[in-house]
């Protein structure tokens, strides 16, 4: 069963000024929008990192909702894994961290190497690879930024 970990951090975003009507234009009221980050981490995905990294540059440029639409019609196991991960972090950021779903953006997407299952099989080479079969696993870390409701 894959291990999933979710964290949250709070940061202050840029302060903008807003001119209020019925007052002189020189009087500006500062309005600060607080942004938070929601983090998704899956430590044991049974797909090689190389296959997952083929999808990450395309997803990073999109909003999470657009990424879901694109991944829904991509016919790979890596796309199905990313689809579930992004769905999970959107729901988590909306329900648990009270972030506005329209303001969500990808802060970072990292795919790292996880554990490897190794076994010997002499039919796969006796001299060069020494008959070693490696089943590679991955770690996915997705961080979303968004404004509070």
UniProtKB/TrEMBL annotation:
<keyword id="KW-0699">rRNA-binding</keyword>
<dbReference type="InterPro" id="IPR047867">
    <property type="entry name" value="Ribosomal_uL22_bac/org-type"/>
</dbReference>
<keyword id="KW-0689">Ribosomal protein</keyword>
<keyword id="KW-0694">RNA-binding</keyword>
<dbReference type="Pfam" id="PF00237">
    <property type="entry name" value="Ribosomal_L22"/>
</dbReference>
<dbReference type="GO" id="GO:0003735">
    <property type="term" value="F:structural constituent of ribosome"/>
</dbReference>
<keyword id="KW-0687">Ribonucleoprotein</keyword>
<dbReference type="GO" id="GO:0019843">
    <property type="term" value="F:rRNA binding"/>
</dbReference>
<comment type="subunit">
    <text>Part of the 50S ribosomal subunit.</text>
</comment>
<protein>
    <recommendedName>
        <fullName>50S ribosomal protein L22</fullName>
    </recommendedName>
</protein>
<dbReference type="GO" id="GO:0015934">
    <property type="term" value="C:large ribosomal subunit"/>
</dbReference>
<comment type="function">
    <text>This protein binds specifically to 23S rRNA; its binding is stimulated by other ribosomal proteins, e.g., L4, L17, and L20. It is important during the early stages of 50S assembly. It makes multiple contacts with different domains of the 23S rRNA in the assembled 50S subunit and ribosome.</text>
</comment>
<dbReference type="InterPro" id="IPR036394">
    <property type="entry name" value="Ribosomal_uL22_sf"/>
</dbReference>
<comment type="similarity">
    <text>Belongs to the universal ribosomal protein uL22 family.</text>
</comment>
<dbReference type="InterPro" id="IPR001063">
    <property type="entry name" value="Ribosomal_uL22"/>
</dbReference>
<dbReference type="GO" id="GO:0006412">
    <property type="term" value="P:translation"/>
</dbReference>
């Amino acid at each position: 069963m894959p291990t999933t970990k979710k964290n949250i951090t709070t940061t202050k975003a840029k302060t903008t000024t807003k001119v209020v009507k019925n007052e002189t234009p020189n009087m500006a009221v500062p309005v600060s929008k607080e942004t938070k980050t929601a983090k998704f981490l899956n430590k044991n995905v049974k797909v090689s990192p190389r296959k997952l990294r083929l999808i990450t540059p395309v997803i990073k440029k999109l909003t999470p909702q657009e990424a879901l639409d694109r991944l829904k019609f991509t016919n790979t196991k890596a796309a199905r894994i990313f689809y579930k991960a992004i769905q999970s972090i959107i729901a988590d950021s909306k329900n648990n961290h009270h972030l506005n779903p329209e303001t969500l953006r990808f802060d970072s997407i990292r795919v790292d190497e996880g554990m490897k299952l190794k076994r010997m099989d002499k039919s796969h080479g006796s001299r060069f690879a020494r008959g070693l079969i490696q089943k590679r696993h991955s770690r996915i870390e997705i961080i979303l930024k968004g404004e509070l409701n």
